[in-house]
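Everyone, study these two lines:
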Amino acid sequence: MLHTSKLLLVLLLLVTWGCSSIRVSQDYTSADNLSGLRSYAWHYDNQEKTGDIRIDSPLIDSRIRAAIDETLKARGYRSTARDLADFHVAYQYAIRGKIRSDNVQTRIGFGFGSYGRSSAFGVSTGSDVSSYDEGLLVIDILDSRDGSTLWRGKGTRQVFIHTEPAAMTEQVNETVHKILDQFPP
């Protein structure tokens, strides 16, 4: 019984870990261009509208901006006026539909009824196909002089449209922290 409980706990942790995974990556011009950066400002005062009602929300915008501000300040960068900043920060957010398909699986089952009076044998094959929404957050570090991109971090994770505000804030914070963990390279 104890062995079964441990196995179920491990399976639950693996399923939970798989559902909450965030994939991140980065691209940058040169690490030398990023070494002297100390202060930042937002590139845009207002986030550009995308036309997607799920994204064009001042609540989502404020969560993302607050998470970026908090993360950068925790790493020693200070917010300043746009014309005094060493670099500018901008972000883009998108939600896109994705399809997940598992490999083809074959299952075999055999069972007995009560007191051995009946039995059954079954074989099934197929793959599981499901759809889900994936959020893509892109954070850009821009040269304050000409607006060219110095560094870009990207993060993706599964998102749910009907998420409670506290859970959404936690997900945004986690995603932003993981993306900015790569900065500077």
